[in-house]
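Following up on my earlier thread - several people asked me to post the actual chain instead of describing it. Fair enough. Here it is, all 187 residues.
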Amino acid sequence: MKCENCGNEFEGKFCPNCGVPAPESLSVCKSCGKEFAGRFCPHCGAPAGPVTCLRCGREFEGRFCPSCGTPAGEAPASAAVPPAQAVPNIIINNDNSSKNINTNANLNQNVSQTGYDAGYRSRKSRVAALILCIIFGVLGIHRFYVGKVGTGILYFFTGGLFGIGWLVDIITIVTGSFRDNLGFPLV
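Reply from S.P.:
Thanks for posting it. Predicted structure:
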């Protein structure tokens, strides 16, 4: 074999004179008749020998597979795509024929007149509300304390509804029937 770099004749895979790898064995192209090294002719693209088609698996000689037309040495774009899977059949049954009947039974027996459970209590103190009502009742401060801002403003400008609302609030706080803005009894 002759080295392409230095022209030295040698046997083996590397030139002993310059270290350049030996050229691959040359093949003669069956299509164009030119010599080339490798699996495919760089001039016309024909394979050096029989090639297995990457699409259909058939062995052939030439530039294209006679079965499927795929170029030699190339996988077609469709070969990379997995085969289509079966599309699931989805059935939507929406006839809206229900009568919308409420079957829930009301099991809350402890619900008070205001609609709140009788077991719950306000976080506001009854004693604090009573002290505020006795001292500042005509100004409605006790109503601001329990969250009744609207009536607190009314009491502030009318002097506890001219003293009558103030007396009624003292009695309701002492008896325990005074409630906060959410309807819960004071603690």
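The beta strands are 26-28, 35-37, 51-52, 59-60. That should answer part of your original question.
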